[in-house]
Design a protein that fits this description.
seven-stranded mixed sheet, single chain, 118 residues, four-stranded antiparallel sheet, mainly beta
């Protein structure tokens, strides 16, 4: 059974940096799009950044110029480098990936908490 495993969240002061990582465990054949989403208290989950298997990225306007998504296809890992963090970046960050195991399916990680203090 495929699962996405995230790491790298934590508590940081405004202006600081964090890097999130996510990789699948289990048996699979291929990974297509990968991305990061976040959910702040009282809000819906929203897209932060996505990246295709070919490396094309897309960002939410609120994080452009501060966050960078990347992936290492050899390690099946997606990263989110977050710089110049703001208190409004606080939330649970979820990894998402389209993975081919028995069929193509979308998977979510368990979420990792990012808290930015002012």
């Amino acid at each position: 059974q495929v699962q996405l495993v995230e790491s790298g969240g934590g508590l940081v002061q405004a202006g600081g940096s964090l890097r999130l990582s996510c990789a699948p465990s289990g048996s699979f054949f291929a990974i297509n799009n990968m991305g990061w989403y976040r959910q702040a208290p009282g809000n819906k989950r929203g897209m932060v950044a996505t990246i295709t298997s070919g490396g094309l990225s897309n960002y939410a306007d609120s994080v452009k110029g501060r966050f960078t998504i990347s992936r290492d296809n050899a390690k099946n890992t997606v990263y989110l480098q977050m710089n110049s963090l703001k208190p409004e970046d606080t939330g649970v960050y979820y990894c998402n990936a389209e993975i081919l195991s028995s069929r193509w399916s979308g998977y979510w990680g368990q979420g990792t908490q990012v808290t930015v203090s002012s």
